[in-house]
Amino acid sequence: MGIQIAPSILSADFARLAEEAAAVSNADWLHVDVMDNHFVPNLTLGMPVVESLAKAAGTPLDCHLMIEDPDRWAPGYVEAGASSVTFHVEACRAPIRTAREIRAKGARAAMALRPATPIEPYEDLLSELDMILIMTVEPGFGGQKFLDVCVPKIRRTRQLLDKHGLDLWIEIDGGISADTIEQCAEAGADVFVAGSAVYAAEDPNAMVDRLRGLAEKVTDR
């Protein structure tokens, strides 16, 4: 699908979620951060809100589960309407089983890595996935500064996918803006979560297009 932009509603107005979703109609995905105040020190929204948003939004939902026990909860988010469900490998006891359950219910399965979690130990799991999410901030809060120390991990992940001939997407989440998206695209990422950069813009849809254009400029070289 080429470059994809997934605005994060973590930076949206929670009192106007349907309107905020419509404000980024040019986006490929709507990124939904689910936090439980246990795996990360923040509490956001859960399955009932995802179910309501899935009915109201015209853009497919990309649910990022920053929660404990994703093995138990992840399949339910597909039933709630998510088209892609991401679990954190650090919190998952049975990542292969969980990925297979997500896919069996009809959604894309993704595995997320915190900034300090390497990709290499999970090389044998890659064929069970549709996407790898590389966090470029510590998960839990929006508006954080991009950690450029994670860029080499993006490159290593792309090399592993190429090595095995796998057609997985690499998603980047954390501090993505017009100033940081190009280096991630150059390293091999193709799906970009942007919260503050999009929702703080005067025209969120125009910012979605600008970010996509900046990443495409790099990948077209």
UniProtKB/TrEMBL annotation:
<feature type="binding site">
    <location>
        <begin position="140"/>
        <end position="143"/>
    </location>
    <ligand>
        <name>substrate</name>
    </ligand>
</feature>
<keyword id="KW-0119">Carbohydrate metabolism</keyword>
<feature type="binding site">
    <location>
        <position position="64"/>
    </location>
    <ligand>
        <name>a divalent metal cation</name>
    </ligand>
</feature>
<feature type="binding site">
    <location>
        <begin position="173"/>
        <end position="175"/>
    </location>
    <ligand>
        <name>substrate</name>
    </ligand>
</feature>
<keyword id="KW-0479">Metal-binding</keyword>
<comment type="pathway">
    <text>Carbohydrate degradation.</text>
</comment>
<feature type="active site" description="Proton donor">
    <location>
        <position position="173"/>
    </location>
</feature>
<dbReference type="InterPro" id="IPR013785">
    <property type="entry name" value="Aldolase_TIM"/>
</dbReference>
<protein>
    <recommendedName>
        <fullName>Ribulose-phosphate 3-epimerase</fullName>
        <ecNumber>5.1.3.1</ecNumber>
    </recommendedName>
</protein>
<dbReference type="Pfam" id="PF00834">
    <property type="entry name" value="Ribul_P_3_epim"/>
</dbReference>
<feature type="active site" description="Proton acceptor">
    <location>
        <position position="33"/>
    </location>
</feature>
<feature type="binding site">
    <location>
        <begin position="195"/>
        <end position="196"/>
    </location>
    <ligand>
        <name>substrate</name>
    </ligand>
</feature>
<keyword id="KW-0413">Isomerase</keyword>
<dbReference type="InterPro" id="IPR000056">
    <property type="entry name" value="Ribul_P_3_epim-like"/>
</dbReference>
<feature type="binding site">
    <location>
        <position position="8"/>
    </location>
    <ligand>
        <name>substrate</name>
    </ligand>
</feature>
<dbReference type="InterPro" id="IPR011060">
    <property type="entry name" value="RibuloseP-bd_barrel"/>
</dbReference>
<feature type="binding site">
    <location>
        <position position="173"/>
    </location>
    <ligand>
        <name>a divalent metal cation</name>
    </ligand>
</feature>
<feature type="binding site">
    <location>
        <position position="64"/>
    </location>
    <ligand>
        <name>substrate</name>
    </ligand>
</feature>
<comment type="similarity">
    <text>Belongs to the ribulose-phosphate 3-epimerase family.</text>
</comment>
<comment type="function">
    <text>Catalyzes the reversible epimerization of D-ribulose 5-phosphate to D-xylulose 5-phosphate.</text>
</comment>
<feature type="binding site">
    <location>
        <position position="33"/>
    </location>
    <ligand>
        <name>a divalent metal cation</name>
    </ligand>
</feature>
<dbReference type="InterPro" id="IPR026019">
    <property type="entry name" value="Ribul_P_3_epim"/>
</dbReference>
<feature type="binding site">
    <location>
        <position position="31"/>
    </location>
    <ligand>
        <name>a divalent metal cation</name>
    </ligand>
</feature>
